[in-house]
Every structure is written in structure tokens, then in C-alpha cells.
Amino acid sequence: MREFTYEAQPMRVVLRPGGSVTAVPDEAGRLGLRRLLVVCGPRGAETARAVADALGDACAGLHAEARMHVPAEVADRAVEAVRAVGADGCVAVGGGSAIGLGKVIALRTGLPLLAVPSTYSGSEMTPVWGLTEHGTKRTGRDPSVLPRSVVYDPELTLSLPVGLSVTSGVNAVAHAAEALYAPDASPLVSLMAEEGARAMTGALPALAADPHDLDARGRALYGAWLCGAALGATTMGLHHKLCHVLGGTFGLPHAETHTVVLPYALAYNAPAAPEAMAALGRALDTDDVPEALRELAGRLGAPRSLAELGLKETDVAVAAGAVSGQAYPNPREVTEAGVLGVLRAAYAGDRPSARH
Ligand code: NAD
């Protein structure tokens, strides 16, 4: 038996169709909260309004200004809004961007956060916050940003377009994959990661065939929960570092970038992570995990190459230099030539191979 350390996160999770309006008021009541500010992005305002209405007198206002990667000025305005209404807590409704804003509010004010996720990003399960100042994103870990309660409402995700559902779903699988070979992996987290990858990859074809399949939407959120919990419990490797650089430095879209890069990062790491590959193989029912993931995402209409996402060929070498110049845990040694091979293959959308 390998040694391990496991730390349970103090968090309540409710999964219920309609829960964004039926469960959120109860969750706020359990926490004794009476003046909640609801935060969301501009496109999520209608849904967040329904949550605000359900809270009734316990809603102190609606702030619909969340944006990708939490720009500092957006965070400043949100904290001002919290103070202006005398809020005693915050409910973030939306994807990783809205939840990211809720986390920075919690970090700066110490107020409790409730999360109502509408994508599969998994941010709601992690104590990691991010803030973008002068074009640079800083991240940190702080237990105070972990939501006190998370309400997963499959009905809320019926409007998530199939394209974004698929890429966001593969983003979740990426968390599970890297958790399985993380240096701080542990048996319970590995079980969650394997089951999360199984639930998500099983749900995606069904919801792509019928985006209104509530059962498939529920299974995808269940998968997102488990994959997000695995992300929150472990330290990510090469794949997340590649996506961080491609998103942060070259402005590539978050979930789509994860979807394109994952098969190549896994093909690179596979020879050094046989147990993780075996777990993912069981989850996806395949003996070629990288190709199975690439085939699944492509079949469901996701982009297949970094070129399609707008990366310039000349940026490939710049990104490879940035990713290989940093220190982070990874099962296989990260060399500049290795990263360059991974990025070249992902740029072209080639069949993934461990030889890159
Ligand atoms: P997002 O929150 O930016 O949402 C993407 C788009 O989908 C937005 O335009 C949004 O309005 C729309 N959308 C969301 N839910 C919808 C729904 N149900 N119906 C219709 N449209 C909907 O994207 P994301 O991929 O969820 O999150 C990405 C952000 O989260 C990034 O900034 C990333 O760094 C961060 N993130 C952080 C962590 C963490 O642990 N801190 C984990 C994962 C992601």
C-alpha cells in the first residue's frame, strides 16, 4: 500500500432538478444568511434573477458583472456592491467565471459563499481563487473561498449549448486525469476521479444527442462534482500548465483549449503513469485513452486543433518555452523538446502519440 494523506473538505452538496430555486433558499437558511448578493455574468442574468426571486427578502441584490478570469476592476466593483447593500453572504450563479468572482468576494470580505454551477468547470469544489491584474492572472489557495454549499441543478444546464457542454465536460475529465497521477493522489480521491471521468464521458454523448435529456444533464453534473473534487484535492501537472499558458498568454478559450490539449498531454504522460491510464481506461472502456478522448470530443463536434482555436504557428515554440521553464509536478520529466512535440501535435490535431 502506498502512503497517502487525505483531507476532507467541509462542504455540503445538493444535486436536485430545480434546486437553484428550491434548494438555494434552504441552504441560505441553514447557514443563517438573510442578505445575500447574487452574482453572475451578463449572459446568466435571467437565471440568476430566478434564484434572486426565490430568495425573496433574503436577496440583497443582483450583480451581473462577472467576466472571464476575474479582472481586478470587476472584483473591486463587486466588493463595493457587497458593502453597499450590507450583504451577509454571496450566491454565485454560473460557470467558472461567476464562481471565480464569488470566490474573490469571499476572500476579500470573509463572507460565506454559496455556488450554483451552470457548467462543468469544477471551480466550485476547489479552494483556488484567481484574479487578473495588468494582464497577469494570479492564483492562490485559501480555505475561505471554498463554497459552504453547492447546489447542482441539472435544469440550469439545459441551456448550456452542446459545444460548450462537451468542451466543459472534457475540462472536467482533465481534472480527473491529472488527479490520478498527482504526487498527492490518494485512494478515495482516485476513486472519485475514475468515477467522475466515467460519469462525464458516459453522459456527454447522450446530452449531445438530446440536450434536454435531464438524466444525462444530471449525470454530467455528478461527474463534474467528482472531477472538481479531485481537482481541489490534488496538484495538477503538465496538462493544466499548458492550458494556463495558452489561455493566459495567448488568450485561447478555457474549456476548448483543455479539450484539444488533453489527449496529447495524456499521451506524453502515459508511459510514466500506467495506473492512472488503467483507471481512465476502465472509465472510458478503452485501451487507448488519449485516442478515445480525441475521438469522443471530435465526434461530438469539439475543435480538434490549437490552429482551429486561433493559435499562431510561431506561438507554439514561445508557449513550449514558457511551459518547460516552470517547475511543477508531473509523472514524466518535462523537457522543452517534449513540450514542443506535444504542442506541435496539438496545433496540427494529429493522432496523439507518446513519442511527441
Ligand atoms: P465561463 O464561466 O466563462 O462560461 C462560459 C460561457 O458560458 C459564458 O459566456 C457563460 O455566460 C456561458 N454559460 C455558462 N453557463 C451557461 C448555461 N447554463 N447556459 C448558457 N450559457 C451558459 O466558463 P467556464 O469554463 O465555466 O469557467 C472558466 C473560468 O473558470 C476560467 O477563468 C477558469 O480559469 C476558471 N476555473 C477555475 C477553477 C478553480 O479551481 N479556481 C477551476 C476551473 C475553472
Q: How would you portray this structure in words?
A:
It is a single chain. The protein is of the alpha/beta class and 356 residues long. The chain folds into 2 domains: 12-157, Rossmann fold (3-Layer(aba) Sandwich), CATH 3.40.50; 162-348, Dehydroquinate synthase-like, alpha domain (Up-down Bundle). Helices cover 52% and strands 11% of the residues. It has 14 helices and 8 strands. Strands 1-8-5-4-2-3 form a 6-stranded parallel β-sheet, sandwiched between helices. β6 and β7 form a beta hairpin. α6 runs parallel beside α10 (254-269), α9 (238-248) runs antiparallel to α10 (254-269) and α10 (254-269) runs antiparallel to α12. The longest helix has 23 residues, at 187-209. The protein is globular, with a radius of gyration of 20 Å. The model has no long low-confidence stretch (mean pLDDT 96). Bound molecules: nicotinamide-adenine-dinucleotide (NAD). The site of nicotinamide-adenine-dinucleotide (NAD) has 27 residues, from α5, β6, α6 and α10. GO terms for molecular function: alcohol dehydrogenase (NAD+) activity; maleylacetate reductase activity; metal ion binding. This is Maleylacetate reductase.
